[in-house]
User: Fold these one by one.
Assistant:
Number 1:
Amino acid sequence: MSKKLKVKNLSHTYTDQPEKTEVLKNVNATFEPGKLYAIRGESGSGKTTLLSLLAALDEIQSGDITYGNKSIKEIGLNNFRLRYSNIVFQSYNLIKYMTAVENVEVAIDFSERKADPNKYLKQVGLTEAEGKRLVNKLSGGQQQRVAIARALASNTPIIFGDEPTGNLDENTETKIIEIFQDLAKKDHKIVILVTHSNKVASYADVVYKLSRGKLTKV
Ligand SMILES: Nc1ncnc2c1ncn2[C@@H]1O[C@H](COP(=O)(O)OP(=O)(O)OP(=O)(O)O)[C@@H](O)[C@H]1O
Ligand SMILES: [Mg+2]
């Protein structure tokens, strides 16, 4: 599959603020399978907003996002989220009362029901003993790795990350970036990471910067 994800004249304004600020102004971009993308920008520049729209978590106000030349509105936001994309958040959004293994298990792609969740946990450097623990008894960095393992398990063609290495030490960060890189290069996925990390950006094929509502290539 080599469908591209395209952003066309995307604008977004939060209307519930006293000063209605246009966070995104006519943003255009094309994301291709097999490439790792980094999106940078100051705090508050709109990175999470852009990612939420790309991941179909928020309604498009103006402009469009297409996947395989079909608007995600036409694909259906729910359908798009379920079938095509997965997101690793700054705050891991794991199910707290489940173990790490169970969190990964619920995400395993339907066609691969027999896959072993431990395979994905091992890939991100977690042990079997850690896998058996409730996620709220894991450290922040370990929880982040469970979130990434879950994204790996779901096997969608698009992977988004919002500061996916934000809570990790340098060695673990390198390991995790390499996993994202493999997802792009070996599995031919579209991988888009919002990041403040120079290291993550140095691994990216394309680096975008968001500033004053405009997205430009660095
Ligand atoms: N749901 C919301 N309602 C109103 N305003 C919002 C909402 N979400 C974000 N904003 C505002 O929109 C702007 C962009 O926020 P966004 O979270 O996209 O920034 P960011 O680039 O991800 O920042 P950071 O690097 O700190 O995560 C900010 O000024 C923020 O306060
Ligand atoms: Mg953010």
Note: Residues 170-185 form the longest helix (16 residues).
Number 2:
Amino acid sequence: MLTKFIETMRQRISRPLQYYADICVRCGACVEACHFYVASGNPAHIPAYRMMLVKKLLQQGGNGRGILDWYRETGRIDDQTVTEIRHALWECTGCRRCAVFCPFHLDTGLLVNTGRYALLQEGLGMEMTAEIGNAELSKGEIVDALKEFYVEQVRELEGRLREEWGVPDLRIPVDQAGARVLYVPVVGEHAIIPLAKIFHAAKENWTLSLFTATNHSYFVGDIPKAKQVAHWIVDEARRLGVQVIAYAECGHATRTLLQYFDHWFGEELAGIQRMSVVQLVAQYLAEGRIRVRPGTFTMPLTYHDPCNLGRNAGIYEEPRALIRAVATDFRELTPGRELNWCCGGGGGMIAEPDMLEVRIKAGRPKVEQIQRTGARVVVTACENCKTQLADLSERYGLGWEIKGAVDIVADALVM
Ligand code: SF4
Ligand code: SF4
């Protein structure tokens, strides 16, 4: 057991991970930074301990056998190690809050990403997340066959919205060559409706992607697959000749778009700008391309910085600009921005039914900081955060209304 895990880790250990393994000085500055550890008290949730566990497994004796085998033979290690390594590598949202507190910025998120892939080879994985990743990969191969059905669904939605909003010239273009903006949604019409309204008001020349932004292979550290899934979208952008790729409110996907695409695709992206749709809508507002009714939201409202938009991609100001344009009682979280607590719903955990309880527990620091603001509405800009915050609200009996940053703009829009 764990032989494949050890082999895979050895093959994939990168220089930054080696650096982590070598220079962690056990100072403990990361311990209380992790919401999993704060909520559980389980040592396997301590960021530095996660690395220690992996390092222990990678250190082999001179006879070429794994230390785990040796431990097993001598009775010094048992299934507890396997349990610990699963807690350590699966129960992490990759939020990188620990890296901010670490004096060397050692990145447990990177360790977890690599370690998850290695555990999957062992059959000890987040199988559901990996399967969704495989489905996203397959979609690119059969997208032409799916296109007709998808376009039909979009036309039906377009007709319904024209009637509901009394806007007969509303359009939801799909696969439109020559569009300026390629909008890549997440699954579900809730990710299309507010943007259809905003793009119409901004008179944007846009088109809806045939794909979705989500990339579950990234969550399980399967980088070749994650890259291929993202490449379907780059291909689409080039085929249509767009100038901008805008991703829906989706944290991990936005992080890949802004931080991985250059490395993955290089010159293929020449002339194509990439941004979160939150940034794009903030641009419209700043340029006067859309108008909103100030004071549409008067109840206490707060903003949860999704880790992958805030801490991991530096998008702090744009969502706040949207909120200030439409709300009168905006209350910041403390600690906020770079030090904001993760909600506990990232890292692919939402897709795994078995992980519901652990994420509800890990969300406790988030619950407490939102409660301190007295907010009734919680705005955020990530699909996983929205699901997690809704689950937290329900399970802790809090009655919050959860809204996307673009949703509140759409609600306040002057058409
Ligand atoms: S990345 Fe986030 S969840 Fe993972 S160990 Fe660090 S603080 Fe904890
Ligand atoms: S803060 Fe950094 S150096 Fe200190 S124990 Fe944690 S990972 Fe190691």
Note: Confidence is low (pLDDT under 50) at residues 72-77.
Number 3:
Amino acid sequence: MRIIFLGTGGGLPTPKRNLPATALQIGSEIVLFDCGEGTQRQFMSSNASFMKVQKIFITHFHGDHFLGLPGLIQSMNFIGRKKKLEIYGPPGIVEIVDRVVNLGYFSPGFEISAMELKSGESLHFDGYDVFAVAVDHLVPAFGYVLKEATRPGRFLPEKAKMLGLKEGPLFRALQKGRNVKVDGKLITPEMVTGPPRPGIKIAISGDTRPCDRFAKAAENSDLIIHEATLDSSLREQATDYGHSTAMEAAMIALRARASTLYLNHISNRYEDASILENEARMVFPNTFIAEDLMEITLRHRKE
Ligand SMILES: [Zn+2]
Ligand SMILES: [Zn+2]
């Protein structure tokens, strides 16, 4: 799975950081989380095409998180998109999408569906689930957790040989999930495979104060992408505006026993965000600052 940070700023864009948007590539599909103004242009500077976006999840309706929708949708139309686009978000998304789709003289030549989610709701797609969890911001806001489907266990040739099988057609039949017989004895694929392998889990906080519900939903994530608008010296201000400090984000990652933490939604006041990285690493060493157009690839954990 590939993660492309398209916009890692928050509130105001800067020359180095555009407004929030994070793309996840799963197979040939791109799932987009938030769509700040200018997201379509960020796509053009990346190795991903916005025409591959099939689903967009909006965390909340502060302008920095969704004002890229009208331009993105109109450009998709301009390039001749025919495939349906699905947009999900907190209550209000249906009305917002309706307005976006009817701005100016525009009318889309492809279907756009909008769906309001409830906190705790889980959506099942082909190969992965997305879970919405209400977080603690000034307005109704969601964090999202994407979890790949569990994959079947790995075929264990040694085990098969111990049961009297030889490499060849019977091996292949078992690998394809079929039962076989050796000397009249039934051998099922379960007898010669390892335990099921969990899929990759990624949690995206959106804008929030440190939030118990989010920490719980993000438990054992391979990756948490958490907002860290400010550093700890500005904790009071972070509290007033419904944001987290870098250290608070790190404490969430620690509690959730995540593998890796990336910080985004970096305030425009930080020319150099290493102050955020340093304070977070005191709590959660495997922390990194997300930068615009940075790409990371997540691999499945070794069994
Ligand atoms: Zn924001
Ligand atoms: Zn916000």
Note: The radius of gyration is 22 Å.
